[in-house]
Specification:
Elements: E1 4-12, H1 18-26, E2 44-50, E3 53-59, H2 69-84, E4 87-93, H3 100-109, E5 117-123, H4 130-143, E6 149-151, H5 160-170, H6 188-204, E7 212-221, E8 227-235, H7 238-245, H8 250-267, E9 271-279, H9 287-292
Parallel strand pairs: 1-3, 1-4, 4-5, 5-6, 8-9
Antiparallel strand pairs: 2-3, 7-8
Helix pairs in contact: 6-8
Amino acid sequence: MTTRAGFIALIGEPNAGKSTLLNRMVGAKVSIVTHKVQTTRARIRGVAMEGDSQLVFVDTPGLFQPRRRLDRAMVAAAWGGAADADIVVLLIEAHRGLTEGAGRILEGLAELPRGRRVVLAINKIDRVEAPRLLALTQEMNERFPFERTFLISAEKGHGVEDLRRWLAGALPEGPWLYPEDQIADLPLRMIAAEMTREKLTLRLHQELPYQLTVETESWQERKDGSVRIDQIIYVLRDGHKGIVLGHRGETIKAISQAARAEITGFLGRPVHLFLQVKVRETWMDEAERYEEMGLDFRDGKA
């Protein structure tokens, strides 16, 4: 049996559908998916099997114009994921077309190591008519020599199997990199923190999603098969703490219930989740916070 294995980087602007595509490819929720932009902070690896091929997906943070240290570290992580991968998949949204941000990404692709295989996936194809799709495909391929172009809907699954099969055949020959039944190489404590952060992002809407972070402080396996998880939500200011807690603690209670249900479903066993909210004005400038998110603190330098 000839096996294949390799890394596939999913890159694109924020909200292009990278996390949705990763989760559909892997068949489980390993990357948080919200309607907010820039929700993926760490390079999350999801592992999928296709025949005798093992596809290791790197879901990178969305590529955007960075303003803060955290932004710069996220963008550096995205390009680092692309440079290290065997295959790069650029996702763009069909209805948005070749935006200014997508244009900057095309310029960045030209700087990747020579020989790097790059394919285009035009996502959300159900939102536009066929002639517009054809024109966008032509325009993108005139701007960059993509090896292949795939028309997909990550949310609905259209075209995803074709993309997966092609990727499986294009990966280099070699032994599998992970056990066959492993779906992600992130520590469970980080996945649990990401799931709680997703619930915060959904619940708080525009108020503070990018000014907070979640850390799993402790993870205790219990004799009855359940797990106790203690997490800290770090916010920048006292006013933010009040927003997260909500009136009489209603907001944090709802977030805790939603996160516990999600983590329980993912782990397949009972979860006891305890959340604390702490003000830490400097968390965006602390190396430990970046390490917890899988980012390099040094990449955030101006």
